[in-house]
Amino acid sequence: MNKNNFLNLETIEKASEFVANQIISLVNSKPNCVLGLATGSTPLKVYEYLIEDYQKNKTNYENVITFNLDEYVGLDKKYADKSYHYFMNKNLFSKININLNNTYFPDEKNSEKYDTLIKSKGGIDFQILGIGINGHIGFNEPPADLNSKTRIVELTDSTIKANSRFFNEESDVPNRAVSMGLWSILQAKQIFLMAFGKSKKNAIEKLYKLNDFDPNLPASSLIKKDNVIVIVDQESSFY
Ligand code: GLP
Description:
Helix content is about 30%, strand content about 15%. The protein is of the alpha/beta class. It has a seven-stranded parallel sheet, with helices on both faces. Strands 4-8-7 form a three-stranded antiparallel sheet, with no helix packed on it. The structure holds 2-amino-2-deoxy-6-O-phosphono-alpha-D-glucopyranose.
């Protein structure tokens, strides 16, 4: 990717609509496409646009296959509604006609087979990514390994702190997760990384200025790849 691959679409609404429209065109042109999905606050509006479009235009998700990026490991039962699985069902899957048997999540048991499973379905056509304030993508924390596959990872203190807003206590945030690796993510045919709000500005600035992979900024693994678009809003944009 080069510097022209950074798009400032000014507002979360415009940026999310742009990404949603890319997904809708793909689903219409390739009804059995494979989507790589992310959780967190960043993609929420994209999912809202997809639902709105589904209600209006009946875009058909019957044969679409999805792979989520990551999931917590060891989540206490009382926080079942904080799982990424729950998040996807609530914010997207239950509101479109996707077949839940075609929706995949990494977990402790399947982590070693997850990349092979993705490949067996034809590979990810379109990957959505958010970014952590420390530059992580999925749960690939710094220092990150360019060759990492889907595996169990330890979360850093800064990620636990950032994600504690969804829990009663910081100590309730799981300290482990299962995440697609950088290698796994880089296999996608097209990647859209979205970064909204001023907390992401620093990571985006570093990403923009780097010319090569820096393990301390996991998102910089995308630099050597062509088909990557970084979409920012006015608050996360520094240029
Ligand atoms: C989480 C997730 C990432 C996500 C990131 C940003 O820890 N593992 O996949 O992109 O943090 O989250 P948010 O979009 O809520 O800022």
